[in-house]
Description:
Blueprint: E1 2-3, E2 13-14, H1 16-47, E3 62-72, E4 75-84, H2 92-113, H3 118-129, H4 135-153, E5 163-175, E6 178-190, E7 196-204, H5 209-221, E8 229-232, H6 236-245, E9 250-253, H7 255-263, H8 271-281, H9 287-303, H10 307-316, H11 331-334, H12 338-352, E10 356-357, H13 360-376, H14 388-399
Parallel strand pairs: 5-8, 5-10, 8-9
Antiparallel strand pairs: 1-2, 3-4, 5-6, 6-7
Helix pairs in contact: 2-3, 2-4, 4-13, 5-6, 7-10, 8-9, 9-10, 12-13
Amino acid sequence: MAHCSGKKGKIIQIDEGRVKEHLGEIVRGTVQETLNALLDAEADSLCNARKYERTEERQDTRAGSYERNLHTTSGEVKLKVPKLRTLPFETSIIERYRRRESSVEEAMIEMYLAGVSVRRVEDVTEALWGTKVSPGTVSRLNKKIYKRIKEWLGRPIEGTHPYVYLDGICLKRSWGGEVRNVSVLVAVGVSQEGYRDVLGAMEGAKEDKASWSRFLRHLKDRGLSGVRLFVTDKCLGLVESLGEFYPDARWQRCIVHFYRNVFTMVPKGKVREVAAMLKAIHAQESRSEAQRKAAHVVEVLKKLKLRKAAELLKDGIDETLNYYFFPSEHWRRIRTNNPLERIMREIRRRTRVVGSFPDGESALMLAAARLRHIAGNKWGTRQYLKIDRIEELEREMATA
Length: 400
């Protein structure tokens, strides 16, 4: 453990690792001895007599014992739990252990749902619990997580949601030795009270009409109603499905995505100039003014010999102006898909560490776990919009 060096002075060098190991063994032995003594004392109390003691007050006798491992901050100790012949031996020590085991398990689940990687969960539990979780515990944990998330994804959608944002995220999955894409479709809504809700998520083979139709049917079956406006990118399969399931709702094409589509038709040196023109369209005070401004911008683009960009603008501008039918206080937040885009970036950040998923369900579960965590924090507890302005506007329009 230590040795001396030097002729005149003695320098003692201590092997800290061995000291800690030795002390750990001493502490662990003391904890084990103490806990077993407490168990014996509890057994004596239930029997109303000490082991081998003959007395008229005795209520039961011992019937041997069984071993049980207990994880402590000092390491794993072996308990010798007494067995009684007639009375059940219910020890407060074991009950505390069960509560502790349950609380640690709950903490592990919450860590995973908060987006902490499984490897990191193992490291944290080793630091707090004294040992790494076993593969069986991780498997049981995942089953609990999946069950809880599936219940959350299938819960009824209560109340009405005038505004709904839809988007999809493409993740990687392993398939027969190859890496293929799997889509996770997500819906976020603004409730009648003005708060944001994560309405649901679903796995889709790709962002096509069949996948979006299945997702919209799922949302409708769970109770999504009162939708006045859907805000999405122009995914043809999605736009077609909206008309089938919510024919009375308007559709707002995200202006940010629309700008990006136009920029693909513009030389890099002219993007800033064209961006200023497009922003001027959506800065107008009314839909009719925005349409007039757009017609002017189309002519300017033609003069700049940007005919493809001009055609794209002419054909698609009206799809980006439906937010004008709603209160001006809401325009900034309902003309883009930014509220959902930020969430998708967070999912992307969390799933990037995984790489490729073993299957589509695990991709959905991790994305949904992150959505559930986001919905449970301040994001969902702050009022996003004053929805009553919609009804006020409709009354004003009806009167006019």
